[in-house]
Amino acid sequence: MGARPSRQQVPAEPPLALDALPPELLVQVLSHVPPLALVTRCRPVCRAWRDVVDGSSVWLLQLARDRSAQGRALYDLAQRCPPGGQDEDELPLCALARYCLRAPLGRNLIFNSCGELGFRGWEVEHGGNGWAVEKNVTLIPGAPSQTCFVTSFEWCFKRQLVDLVMEGIWQELLDSAQLEICVADWWGARENCGCVYRLRVRLLDMHENEVVKFSASPNPVMQWTERGCRQVSHIFTNFGKGIRYVSFEQYGRDTRSWVGHYGALVTHSSVKVRIRCLS
Length: 279
Fold this sequence. Notes:
The chain is of the alpha+beta class. It folds into 2 domains: 19-102, Monooxygenase (Up-down Bundle); 123-275, Jelly Rolls (Sandwich). It has 7 helices and 10 strands. It has helices spanning 23-30, 35-42, 47-54, 57-64, 69-80, 95-102, 171-174; strands at 123-125, 132-135, 147-150, 156-163, 179-189, 195-205, 210-216, 228-236, 243-254, 265-275. The strands form 2 sheets. It has a 5-stranded antiparallel sheet, with no helix packed on it.
């Protein structure tokens, strides 16, 4: 019998290295990487990868893959209102990268909204016996924590300043007249003591000058009339150009001047930004 003919060994082709890809293909490949990994894992690899992550193309591709109504509207706005220049010392990542990392639209931009972290994130002025944090008298739907801030017998003040640009909403998008800013707060009283509550929300420019504001001063809750919480809300639209900050400010006290914490209960504060006129 004759010998079986040997098969000719075909040498395997070496795998194609990513750094050998043309720049446009490298952008396509990296656009499938999650935003955090792009910044923390891919950007330090080499200069070519850093240039891709620092550019806008890879982030625009990520935006284009969101086929929801809001995603399509945002992608259209990003093309019509692209981010301009920026201060690299203050804002080290490009605006589209910050947006993809922070995902600010529809998210509550108030930090520690229910007092679950004490007073972290808030500027606080303590009147009387000051503010305190305790469990809710009534459960609040959708709240991340069933805790609340409570005032005392003199006016107590609390404020949080939200930097919309640092949260990921670039200035040109804020100036596009296509966004609305929705603010809301839950407040109430104990059954055995009345309270007074006030809310003021101001939209500020980059120098923290007031551009437009909303104020709410509901009627005081009287002693023995009701308990629990109710919501106050407002939507800012057509607020013009130059807005950068939202100043969220709360005031409260009790109506009996009792020592302790018997005043207004406030919780589940929110500032949310969304795109207008979704089709």
